[in-house]
Amino acid sequence: MDDLSLLPEETISNKIYFIRNQKIMLDRDLAMLYGVETKVLKQAVKRNLSRFPEDFMFELNESEFKNWRSQFVTSNSDKMGLRYAPMAFTEHGILMLSSVLKSDKAIQTNIQIMRIFTKVRELLLGTTEMKIDILQIQKKLENHDKNIELVFSYLDELTEKKENESERIKIGYKK
User: Fold this and answer.
1) Which site in 17, 95, 131, 145 is 20 to 30 Å from 163, CA atoms measured?
2) Where is the KilA-N DNA-binding domain (predicted)?
3) In sequence order, what are the beta bridge partners of 18?
């Protein structure tokens, strides 16, 4: 497959949702990306259900489905004619789809999707590392503030001592 047939990254990344604390893609989006009907994708999955445990694929429950629908201002999902709850595929489930759907387009699309999942993971890791760095800098700054306050309090004590000291009587030989 040549580079002209590759999908734009944005097309794929816009189809990644966060449900049940994991990144997923829905059956209809995957079917569209693979160039097959949603019905065909679902049939292939149902014929190979043993390959898709709960952590690879799950069906959205009613509240998740409503929540997903509410995320779209111009809701085309009402016009989709959905009779069954959408299947949600995790990263591992999408990998497993490549063994079920064997067309060249499905394989190339899967490769692209996996690359984008990897980029998303790297971005999240980078963000986490940045947060840790920021927290460390904040702790250092707090310590610096405390040290500066301590220095100023010592300076205040020294100036008070000097102001309160009376002139000392000199002892020794006078000329």
Assistant:
1) 145
2) 14-100
3) 23
